[in-house]
Design goal:
This protein is of the alpha/beta class. Helix 1 crosses helix 4, helix 2 crosses helix 3 and helix 11 runs parallel beside helix 12. Strand 1 and strand 2 form a beta hairpin. It is built from 15 helices and five strands. The longest helix has 14 residues. It has a five-stranded mixed β-sheet, with helices on both faces. The protein has three domains: 61 residues; 60 residues, no CATH class; 157 residues, Ribonuclease H-like superfamily/Ribonuclease H (Nucleotidyltransferase, domain 5, 2-Layer Sandwich).
Length: 315
């Protein structure tokens, strides 16, 4: 059986001419290589309702109008459970990919793609949620940060142990700073390589002594075997930090932020809560702890959609 195709404008022009000349429906169908029922339906549906005259341009306009109206209703317009589930998770700042994975695990017969969630956000189909307020990059493209190289390290990342390199144990940390506005303080962030568990502490400035103090606060009570840093000048007191925490500090190669990929990724997530230019002198540790709590309890794709908190405490 031949597949059906819609009438083209040329075919409609020929149909009008043949119809005006008095050709029968079967004769017109034979000339146009169409089914007689298709010709009959085209004349019936697209002729002027008042005059009965068939106009090819008017017929095309009616066809395009019906075509636009017959599109399938978007899923988020009619699936209330999915819409509610997605809205609640977006308000916890989960990504569409995480939301889709958790939904699909709980509803294997009603799966949804993360692309569908992005499209629903773009179309405004999720109440009280939009890309600028609930997505990590606020609808913008991902960017890559650079790195500095001002430290002469005693240990480099190529010398780090097999266990630390392959995330085989808890207690191997990647650390960095998240800067605020000019002379407006920063955050020290520490991420466990295995569990991706985050700790963060406000520092009033980038002085090595302040960062050393922040390290003591951030990693107090946690198991620490190694710490991996970039070569920023704020880590100049790394020997004192090693003594404070009884740990070995390793430095990445210059301009190689991917060697601390977990830390770079979580710093990007923190930027959602503390955008560039934030004055960290006005940010309380309680504000930071709330953001850290949300990130540590959010499922992660790299953890098979378990949360860092779950992996750290039930490992």
């Amino acid at each position: 059986m031949r597949s059906y195709t819609h009438f083209t404008l040329d075919e409609r022009e020929s149909l009008r001419t043949l119809h005006e000349r008095g050709y029968s429906l079967r004769a017109i169908a034979a000339i146009l290589n169409r089914s007689p029922s298709s010709v009959s339906r085209e004349l019936r549906r697209n002729s002027n309702k008042q005059t009965g005259i068939y106009n090819p341009w008017g017929a095309r306009s009616l066809y395009l109008k019906r075509r636009k109206a017959c599109r399938r209703e978007k899923r988020f317009s009619k699936d209330e459970p999915l819409r509610t589930f997605t809205q609640e998770r977006l308000q916890l700042f989960w990504s569409p990919e995480i939301i889709a994975a958790i939904w699909n695990r709980e509803n294997p017969m009603q799966g949804v793609s993360h692309a569908t969630i992005y499209a629903a956000l773009k179309d405004g189909l999720i109440p009280a949620c939009n890309r600028k307020t609930h997505l990590r990059r606020r609808g913008r493209r991902k960017y890559v940060r650079g790195a500095t190289a001002t430290i002469r390290p005693e240990r480099v990342i190529s010398e780090r142990s097999f266990e630390a390199n392959h995330r085989l144990r808890l207690g191997d940390w990647e650390c960095d700073t998240v800067s605020g506005g000019l002379n407006k303080g920063c955050l020290l962030t520490c991420v466990d390589r295995k569990s991706r568990y985050l700790t963060a502490v406000v520092s009033p400035n980038f002085r090595a002594s302040s960062i050393r103090s922040a390290f003591r606060k951030a990693l107090s009570g946690h198991e620490v075997h190694t710490i991996t840093l970039d070569r920023g000048p704020e880590f100049a007191a790394f020997r004192e930090v090693e003594a404070d925490l009884d740990a070995e500090i390793y430095f990445c190669d210059p301009h190689a932020p991917w060697q601390r990929a977990s830390n770079e990724n979580i710093n990007g997530a923190l930027r959602f809560f503390f955008p560039k230019g934030t004055d960290f002198r006005l940010v309380t540790q309680e504000d930071v702890d709330l953001a850290v709590f949300l990130l540590n309890h959010r499922p992660r794709k790299c953890l098979d959609f378990r949360s860092p908190y779950h992996l750290l405490h039930f490992y």
